[in-house]
Amino acid sequence: MTALAVLAVAAAVAYVTAAVHLCLRGDFWPATRVFAFCGGAVSVAAAALAPLPGGAFTVHMGQHVLLGMVAPLLFVLGRPVTLAFRALRPGSPRRLLLRLVHSRPAGWLVFPPVAALLDVGGLWVLYRTPLFAATHEHPWLHALVHFHVLVAGILFTASVLQLDPLRRRYGLVLRGVTLVAASAAHGVLAKTLYLSAPPHVSFADVPRGAELMYYGGDVVEIALAVVLALGWYAEAGRRYRAAGSQPAAAGSVTAGRR
């Protein structure tokens, strides 16, 4: 977990460095995106290092919500891939990044249903198989699970919001349905945990942990839906303005010819 916090802080430092470099070059980069990305790094550090309140299972669920939901949303809102494309000058590093982002494996990983399966499906595997018990016996497996939760959360959030350039852009219906389905599966899992605790968990600590997973997940999922709706509204407005300007442009050309 400490290594995860170090990686998050290093990513935030690299992000801020790139944003400052962009501004010194005379290009604009919104401060809100910088705050969002750094907030994601703080969320990871808090999950890894901060003494969260509650019993062991409640603390674990607090880490889950921070790592798998809050941090990914903030990281994606920071649009790090867009920043990298704008900060890198034309050359080999930029071409390599472009090939990576537009590669077929990357395209599959950010296909919304696949990303949802990796994210929420991974949680079902964790809590409804012997894997959760194994994480208590093997520290390396515990760290690997946390890393998966963070990465899967980032992929899912990126696939739904599509704020950064992707290999292929998917429609609002597919992304919205995927978000609703993933939210439902996450909520159902939280309810099953409330009724039946996984191994190595104190039954007295289960209700608080399950409620934190359920209601904390709801808050982040609502935020995702709001960002998705705002993105759709902005895109629809751009299309409307573009459609309205075309007849006017055609009319001005006709008048000029006369």
What brief labels describe this structure?
258 residues, mainly alpha, 11 helices, 0% strand, globular
Briefly characterize the structure.
With 258 residues, this protein is mainly α. It contains eleven helices and no strands.
Order of helices and strands: HHHHHHHHHHH
Structural class: mainly alpha
- Unreliable stretches: none
User: Biggest β-sheet: count, sense, barrel?
Assistant: none
For the record, give the distance between the C-alpha atoms at the N and C termini, rounded to a whole number. 72 Å
Number of helices: 11
Return the average pLDDT rounded to an integer.
88
GO cellular component, one term: plasma membrane
Subcellular location: Cell membrane
InterPro entries: Caa3_assmbl_CtaG-rel
Protein name: Membrane protein
Q: Overview of this structure, please?
A:
It comes from Amycolatopsis bartoniae. This protein is mainly alpha-helical and 258 residues long. It has one domain. It is built from 11 helices and no strands. Helix 1 packs across helix 4, helix 2 runs antiparallel to helix 3 and helix 7 packs parallel to helix 10. The model has no long low-confidence stretch (mean pLDDT 88).
